[in-house]
């Protein structure tokens, strides 16, 4: 089978960023904690490939370490959504039409009324800002997304003959969900996971930008943008580079998600042919 | 239809009650003593006690919740601790910026996205289609506040067509007000328009595969006629849902964009509330935002069922 072009492109971008993050644990061109005011706001050079910021920190190193925050927040937030949302969705599908299904779906609708920014505002108002709050805010919003996707996917599989066979064989609804439904909706979940991952990166950047996410001295792409805003007239480079990093990362994940969907969903493949 | 509207209204009321309980619990129960929290560690005990009296914190939780909710329903959102004015006055003032901004962005995104999605679907597989799809892919990936900074750099700093931020007030004239909101509205609209154009394209393509379109073509309609007379109306259904959902994203997104442009809207009010620990402001504003989202979703549901009888059965 031919791999979609966007899948290759997207996967390449994603792998590049993850490699940069992994590398940042072992080595960065310069130390991001060390300030060197005498070398502040330098342009790109042999010593500082992408130049330095207003504290004389190396921009490339900052971007590499900042990616850690973005990716960690997004991954944990997707994890929260999957671990809580998928079992909820499977339970709703197993009790389709029943009161439990209704309760779970109405609960979903309710969470949708709290956009992640609003959740972050609520948490921050009481506990103060932190990266953990960003994870919680984005993660809570991910729960109904995964619940809905797994319920939708599971509903169509429950009507199939081999599920009937499993029920006749005496398997419980929980076992059927775990052994037969879950593997069959895994592709839906992988595609949705990629999309939520990229949305998480964007949301984390937004929250950190307005000061509701990662706090200094932890570098994060959103914080770098907030710091750069006052210097946009004199040194636009400081605002451009973190922005481009966010775009490249999100674009990579979105392309990968689209590519995976084309690859894994036979319905779309047929429609395109 | 009436039955559908009633069950939806019941679920709307329930959602609002649960949402208000959650907000009340987070803001007023978790911090322990909101008065001490608002004044900080170094506050004199007498000041804390006075504020407790002021905020009516000495009553039971149930009576406090009830008085907050009945107040909200009658338009009494409490008195801001930092501004010393009723929150409802602040909200009314700030809505004059936030609401026009959200609508401006919604209109921009819809008027751009629908024709663009239509063209992409009509010219499917062509260079135009690939160009549009590539651009929208990029538009989704761009953080809107970063795009806002880019707009400021190009159109305010370099070209000097717009001011970099601030709002002159509607007293300065409608045009001046709209001009100040133009860059923020473009920044807000970009990702929304990109998503909407993609939904429009895929929805129309899917509709064009339906049997009734084949029938329409078979009875002699041209592709264009079949599209405009039959496919377009059906393809609009998912597009309308997305527009409804986007309204809440625009309200929430505006919170960040207002901060880029120093616009005196609800978003800046919320952030001021957070930094000044003005819980009265935060609590009422969050409730208002959530209220707006829930009500818009309800209206979209009802509008659909009115248009498409098939959806009423799902209630």
Plain-language structure description:
The complex is a heterodimer of chains A (273) and B (315). Chain A contains ten helices and no strands. Chain A is mostly helical and 273 residues long. In chain A, helix 2 (59-94) packs antiparallel against helix 7 (173-209). Chain A is elongated. Chain B has 315 residues and is mainly α. Chain B has two domains: 2-73, no CATH class; 91-314, MetI-like (MetI-like fold). Chain B contains twelve helices and no strands. The longest helix of chain B is centred in the last third of the chain and has 38 residues, at 223-260. The interface between A and B is large, with 38 and 48 residues.
Question: Helix and strand layout, with pairings?
Answer:
The complex is a heterodimer of chains A (273) and B (315).
Chain A: H1 5-26, H2 59-94, H3 99-112, H4 116-127, H5 131-158, H6 161-168, H7 173-209, H8 221-229, H9 237-264, H10 266-272
Chain B: H1 2-29, H2 34-39, H3 45-55, H4 61-73, H5 87-122, H6 127-141, H7 144-158, H8 174-208, H9 211-218, H10 223-260, H11 266-275, H12 279-307
Helix pairs in contact in B: 1-12, 5-6, 5-8, 5-10, 6-8, 7-8, 7-10, 8-10, 9-10, 10-11, 10-12, 11-12
Mean pLDDT across residues of chain A: 84
CATH topology of chain A: MetI-like fold
Q: How far apart lie the N and C ends of chain B? A: 10 Å
Categorize the overall geometry of chain A. Answer: elongated
Oligomer: heterodimer
CATH superfamily of chain A: MetI-like
**Number of alpha- plus pi-helical segments of chain B:** 12
CATH class of the largest domain in chain B: Mainly Alpha
Q: Give the class of chain B from helix and strand content and strand pairing.
A: mainly alpha
Helices and strands of chain A, in order, run as HHHHHHHHHH
Main structural class of chain A: mainly alpha
Report the CATH C-level class of chain A: Mainly Alpha
Strand content of chain A: under 5%
Report the sheet with the most strands of chain B, covering strand number, pairing sense and barrel closure. Answer: none
In terms of per-residue confidence, which ranges of chain B show pLDDT below 50 for 5 or more consecutive residues?
A: none
């Amino acid at each position: 089978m031919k791999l979609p072009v966007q899948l290759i492109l997207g996967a390449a971008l994603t792998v590049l960023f993850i490699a940069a993050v992994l590398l940042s644990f072992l080595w960065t061109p310069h130390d991001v904690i060390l300030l060197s005011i005498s070398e502040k706001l330098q342009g790109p050079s042999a010593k500082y490939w992408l130049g330095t910021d207003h504290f004389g920190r190396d921009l490339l190193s900052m971007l590499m370490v900042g990616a850690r925050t973005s990716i960690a927040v997004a991954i944990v937030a997707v994890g929260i959504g999957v671990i809580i949302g998928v079992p909820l969705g499977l339970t709703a599908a197993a009790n389709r039409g029943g009161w439990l299904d209704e309760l779970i779906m109405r609960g979903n609708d309710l969470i949708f009324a709290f956009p992640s920014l609003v959740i972050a505002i609520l948490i921050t108002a009481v506990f103060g800002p932190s990266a953990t709050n960003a994870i919680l805010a984005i993660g809570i919003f991910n729960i109904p997304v995964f619940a809905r996707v797994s319920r939708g996917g599971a509903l169509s599989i429950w009507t199939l003959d081999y599920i009937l066979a499993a029920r006749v064989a005496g398997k419980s609804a929980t076992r059927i969900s775990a052994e037969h439904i879950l593997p069959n909706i895994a592709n839906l979940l992988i595609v949705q996971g990629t999309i939520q991952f990229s949305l998480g990166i964007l949301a984390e950047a937004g929250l950190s930008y307005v000061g509701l996410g990662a706090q200094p001295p932890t570098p994060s792409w959103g914080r770098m943008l907030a710091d750069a805003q006052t210097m946009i007239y004199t040194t636009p480079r400081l605002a451009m580079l973190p922005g481009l990093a966010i775009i490249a990362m999100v674009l990579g994940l979105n392309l990968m998600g689209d590519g995976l969907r084309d690859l894994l969903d036979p319905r779309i493949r047929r429609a395109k042919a | 239809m009436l039955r559908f509207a009633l069950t939806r209204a019941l679920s709307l009321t329930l959602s609002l009650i649960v949402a208000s309980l959650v907000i009340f619990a987070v803001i007023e129960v978790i911090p322990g003593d909101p008065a001490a929290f608002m004044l900080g560690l170094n506050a004199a005990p007498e000041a804390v006690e006075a504020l407790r009296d002021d905020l009516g914190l000495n009553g039971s939780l149930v009576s406090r919740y009830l008085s907050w909710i009945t107040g909200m329903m009658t338009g009494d959102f409490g008195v801001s601790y930092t501004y010393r004015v009723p929150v409802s006055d602040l909200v009314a003032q700030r809505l004059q910026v936030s609401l026009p901004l959200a609508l401006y962005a919604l209109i921009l995104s819809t008027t751009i996205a629908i024709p663009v999605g239509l063209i992409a679907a009509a010219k499917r597989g062509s260079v135009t289609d690939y160009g549009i799809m590539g651009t929208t892919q990029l538009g989704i990936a761009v953080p809107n506040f970063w795009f806002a900074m880019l707009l400021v750099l190009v159109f305010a700093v370099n070209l000097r067509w717009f001011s970099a931020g601030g709002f002159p007030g509607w007293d300065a004239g409608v045009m001046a007000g709209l001009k100040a909101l133009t860059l923020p509205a473009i920044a807000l609209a970009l990702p929304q328009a990109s998503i909407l154009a993609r939904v429009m394209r895929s929805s129309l393509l899917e509709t064009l595969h339906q049997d009734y379109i084949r029938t329409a073509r078979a009875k002699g309609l041209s592709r264009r006629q079949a599209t405009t007379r039959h496919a377009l109306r059906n393809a609009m259904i998912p597009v309308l849902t997305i527009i409804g959902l986007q309204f809440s994203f625009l309200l929430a997104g505006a919170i960040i964009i207002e901060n880029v442009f120093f616009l005196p809207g609800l978003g800046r009010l919320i952030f001021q509330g957070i930094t000044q620990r003005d819980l009265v402001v935060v609590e009422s504003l969050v409730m208002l935002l959530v209220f707006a989202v829930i009500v818009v979703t309800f209206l979209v549901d009802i509008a659909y069922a009115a248009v498409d009888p098939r959806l009423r059965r799902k209630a």
